[in-house]
Design a protein that fits this description.
15 strands; single chain; Quinone Oxidoreductase, Chain A, domain 1; Rossmann fold; 336 residues; alpha/beta; six-stranded parallel β-sheet; globular
Length: 336
């Protein structure tokens, strides 16, 4: 089989195609024929994890060390990137009961990765579900991670009520774009999205009631106040956002440093100023949430916009395009 591999850390040019042995599913595994995979932040990070500084890493430094140990200190332990995918079940192990040969599926491999290949195996009880019928494989491959992270964090940590006012800082990325749609169509809130100039129209098309271009306006200096500020990449701070949070409002972070963890503990103990709290949380990524996401897609409440889909031979160009920051929507790699 063909796969997109990398033998050393570095710029997009380290990616190239290679011929590898086709895997065979174990007793409780399915063999997936991959039709498409996404290019997301995790793929870019893993490709250059050796050279990422703690300042550029959006989590505590300990997690960066753990990532380097996991992926390999000097060179990659895993040669194949790709955590989100869509494809078809080609074969199943003897004990598999949830899926059959020919089932169209989509899912999320997490840090294990491996979707940048024509085939891979995964456990049937992994984050895997039947693909929504109404979207393409390219679209299905770019939605799992952002959507399951967003729906978990908003449901479990957002403390949301219909009619609440919510601001999403980083509204054009995979988690942010899913959050905008979920907040509008699932949680029934009023949504303000914050993004750069090139992506304002994209965020507006997702259903945001208002879009703020951060290059022209600072949302922390405006008169508008919110029940929840959801900062996807931790680009703002609690000190800045306190003034735009309503009493008992929450400052929710999907990416955070040690400072924010300490602030969360402090506001939890003291109640925070006017009940305003910092909330830091990980989203585990579950098959249950993926099934909820699939149902929301089928109901027309959640979608994704694919900016470009590259053939597998142009994987380096796909990564380069995403890193340039000019994309308006998601980017996929076609493997079939």
């Amino acid at each position: 089989m063909k796969a997109i591999v990398y033998d050393s850390y570095g710029p997009p040019g380290v990616l190239h195609t290679a011929e590898l042995e086709k895997p065979v599913p174990g007793e409780n595994e399915v063999l997936v024929r991959v039709y498409a995979a996404s290019v997301n932040f995790g793929d870019l990070l893993a490709r250059r994890v050796r050279d990422v500084s703690s300042r550029d890493f959006h989590m505590p430094s300990l997690f960066l060390l753990m990532a380097r140990l996991d992926f390999g200190l000097r060179k990659p332990r895993r040669q194949i990137l790709g955590s989100e995918f869509s494809g078809v079940v080609e074969a199943t192990g003897k004990a598999v009961t949830k899926f059959r040969e020919g089932d169209p599926v989509f899912g999320y491999l997490g840090q294990k990765m491996g979707a940048y290949a024509e085939y891979f195996c995964m456990p049937e009880n992994g984050v895997l579900a039947i693909k929504p019928e109404k979207i393409s494989h390219e679209e299905a491959a770019t939605i799992p991670m952002g959507a399951i992270m967003a729906i978990y964090l908003l449901r479990e940590k957002g403390n949301l009520q219909p009619g609440n006012k919510v601001l999403v800082n980083g509204a054009s990325g995979s988690i942010g774009s899913a959050a905008v749609q979920l907040l509008k169509h699932h949680f029934k809130t009023e949504v303000t999205g914050v993004c750069g100039t090139r992506r304002t129209a994209y965020v507006k098309s997702l259903g945001a009631d208002k879009v703020i271009d951060y290059t022209r306006e600072d949302f922390t200096q405006q008169a508008e106040t919110y029940d929840l500020v959801f900062d996807v990449l931790g680009k703002s701070s609690f000190a800045q956002c306190k003034r735009v949070l309503k009493p008992d409002g929450r400052y929710l972070l999907a990416s955070f440093k040690l400072k924010q963890l300490l602030q969360m503990m402090g506001t939890r103990i003291t109640g925070g100023p006017s009940g305003k709290k910092v909330v830091c949380a990980f989203a585990p990524g579950s098959v249950g949430d993926l099934i909820v996401v699939r149902d929301l897609i089928e109901a027309g409440k959640l979608t994704t916009i694919v900016d470009q889909a590259f053939p597998m031979e142009q994987a380096a160009e796909a990564h380069r395009y995403v890193e340039e920051g000019s994309k308006k929507g998601s980017v996929a790699i076609r493997l079939a």
